[in-house]
């Protein structure tokens, strides 16, 4: 990417929304602007895990201000990511529909493990660069508003990643509901946090890492307070945490807390955050933790910088791993993928090459991934295997993919056979519809599990809501079963807002 290019990331966190804008400078990103708004969306989930109207409005208002600042940026220069609160919210689609319009850019809801991977990338990129022989094994901890991420890695590679549903906002609401600090509340909060984090004991044991780093939110706030009190800057120790808890207990409540180095917006959630951090220290036998400068938003920024190569390769690897985990007929999925791609290119020649920098290229790449994965559900049951395939994709951990991106793939896979009403909402998207037609036709043309005869077959966009497929005069006589399936496909599309017209079969 050229020097001087501006990149921007919007982080929709459970406690705060952040906008980071940077400029590319010889492979590095130099911050040019940083905005933060305390939205506290994490405490806006009701008993049914729906965002309240007030919580949604706080988010929309913040995004409107960010959107004004992002005017003039291209789609390829901006990425917005949402984390645990929107992973949990049952009405997130309602929030996101308006949020994307207000912001002016797409918003990806990322999985917990994907969040952990990106946090590690942010921390690693902002640590001092070392030579290739440095094998420092790093434990990275990030305590957010409603989740805590733990990662082990070295250099720029995250190796073990996990996300746990415990965070500063959630724990403050649950264990310090009136902002009251008592020994009993801290004890209960730490015990509850350890119960959630207990699974980490077997994976994140001290002999698997050399240095512990803490990122963002709670850990940054604790580091600031301890440094202001005269402790070594950038370092959190057990003794420092004990001192901080003592200060909180002496204050008695968040309202009465006055402590140098603590921002006003952090007081309401510090009790829950410190409880979780103390639990992490105890469980993982951490004596001291370095405060890292990098965070989720920095990881996303650097992947924007490297997206064409790094992320495209990561996604390709993820798809290959899923295909290997649920073995499929490799020759058949290759035939379907090649056929679907050939048909889609007839609809949109601009997609040729599959470049991730163009919308058409990305659509072609996603179509290929859907074709590669369309039969993975057959490992569960051949009956209605497309539904099993879609379920796997909707629930799989998929490094490099956002939740909504995997859902898009699952909808293509779900719709590749059978009735179309099950993907009716997705059919409102013209690109999805073109992808799905190409995939469904490819499955039909490859139904005999041998190389299809595509000579003389032409797929085109005949009208705004009409696609047309034409075959050469002798094709139907040579392939009567395929011709029959094509005629049935025409009937299937008649029950949608779209039409497929057939000529020559």
Detail the topology: elements first, then pairings.
Layout: E1 6-12, E2 16-25, E3 28-38, H1 53-69, E4 78-82, H2 84-88, H3 92-103, E5 107-109, H4 112-126, E6 137-143, E7 148-154, E8 157-164, H5 168-175, H6 183-197, E9 211-215, H7 217-228, E10 235-237, H8 238-251, H9 270-283, E11 288-291, H10 296-306, H11 310-325, H12 330-347, H13 359-373, H14 385-395, H15 403-414, H16 430-445, E12 458-463, E13 466-470, H17 475-478, H18 480-493, E14 499-503
Parallel strand pairs: 1-4, 4-5, 6-9, 9-11, 13-14
Antiparallel strand pairs: 1-2, 2-3, 6-7, 7-8, 10-11, 12-13
Structure characterization notes:
- This protein is α/β, with parallel strands linked by helices.
- The mean pLDDT is 92.
- It has 18 helices and 14 strands.
- It has helices spanning 53-69, 84-88, 92-103, 112-126, 168-175, 183-197, 217-228, 238-251, 270-283, 296-306, 310-325, 330-347, 359-373, 385-395, 403-414, 430-445, 475-478, 480-493, and strands at 6-12, 16-25, 28-38, 78-82, 107-109, 137-143, 148-154, 157-164, 211-215, 235-237, 288-291, 458-463, 466-470, 499-503.
- Helix 14 (385-395) runs antiparallel to helix 15 (403-414).
- The chain has a 6-stranded mixed β-sheet, sandwiched between helices.
- It folds into 3 domains: 6-109, Nucleotidyltransferase, domain 5 (2-Layer Sandwich); 113-294, Nucleotidyltransferase, domain 5, CATH 3.30.420.150; 308-453, Hypothetical protein af1432 (Orthogonal Bundle).
- A hairpin with a 3-residue loop joins strand 1 (6-12) and strand 2.
């Amino acid at each position: 990417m050229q020097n001087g290019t501006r990149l921007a990331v919007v982080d929709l966190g459970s406690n705060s929304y952040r906008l980071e804008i940077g400029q590319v400078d010889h492979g590095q990103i130099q911050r040019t602007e940083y905005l933060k708004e305390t939205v506290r969306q994490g405490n806006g989930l009701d008993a049914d895990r729906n965002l309240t109207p007030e919580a949604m409005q706080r988010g929309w208002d913040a995004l409107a201000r960010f959107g004004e600042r992002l005017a003039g940026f291209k789609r390829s220069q901006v990425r917005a990511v949402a984390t645990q609160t929107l992973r949990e919210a049952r009405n997130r689609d309602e929030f996101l529909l308006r949020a994307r319009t207000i912001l002016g850019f797409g918003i990806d809801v990322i999985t917990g493990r994907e969040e952990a991977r990106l946090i590690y990338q942010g921390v690693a990129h902002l640590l001092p660069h070392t030579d290739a022989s440095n094998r420092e094994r790093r434990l990275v901890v990030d305590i957010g508003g409603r989740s805590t991420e733990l990662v082990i890695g070295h250099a720029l590679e995250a190796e073990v990643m996990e996300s746990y549903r415990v965070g500063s906002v959630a724990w403050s609401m649950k264990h310090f509901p009136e902002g009251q600090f008592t020994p009993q509340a801290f004890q209960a909060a730490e015990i509850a946090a350890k119960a959630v984090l207990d699974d980490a004991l077997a994976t994140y044991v001290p002999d698997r890492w050399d240095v512990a780093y803490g990122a963002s939110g709670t850990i940054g706030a604790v580091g600031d307070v301890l440094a202001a009190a005269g402790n070594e800057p950038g370092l959190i120790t057990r003794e420092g945490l004990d001192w901080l808890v003592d200060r909180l207990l002496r204050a008695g409540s968040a309202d009465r807390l006055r402590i140098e180095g603590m921002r006003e917006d952090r007081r309401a959630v510090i009790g829950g955050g410190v409880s979780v951090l103390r639990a992490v220290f105890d469980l993982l036998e951490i004596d001291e933790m370095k405060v890292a400068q990098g965070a989720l938003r920095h990881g996303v920024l650097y992947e924007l910088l490297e997206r064409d190569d790094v992320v495209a390769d990561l996604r390709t690897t993820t798809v290959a791993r899923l295909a290997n985990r649920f073995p499929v007929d490799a020759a058949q999925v290759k035939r379907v993928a090649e056929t679907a791609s050939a048909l889609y290119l007839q609809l949109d020649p601009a997609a040729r090459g599959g470049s991730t920098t163009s919308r058409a290229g990305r659509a072609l790449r996603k179509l290929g991934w859907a074709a590669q994965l369309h039969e993975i559900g057959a490992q569960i049951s051949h009956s209605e295997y497309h539904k099993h395939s879609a379920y796997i994709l909707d629930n799989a951990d998929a490094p490099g993919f956002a939740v909504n991106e995997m859902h898009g793939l699952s909808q293509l896979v779900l719709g590749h056979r059978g009735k179309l009403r099950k993907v009716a909402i997705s059919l409102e998207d013209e690109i999805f519809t073109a992808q799905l037609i190409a995939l469904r036709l490819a499955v039909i043309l490859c139904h005999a599990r041998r190389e299809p005869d595509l000579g003389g077959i032409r797929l085109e966009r005949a009208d705004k809501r009409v696609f047309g497929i034409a075959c050469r005069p002798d094709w139907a006589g040579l392939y009567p079963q395929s011709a029959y399936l094509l005629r049935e496909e025409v009937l299937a599309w008649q029950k949608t807002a779209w039409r497929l017209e057939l000529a020559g079969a």
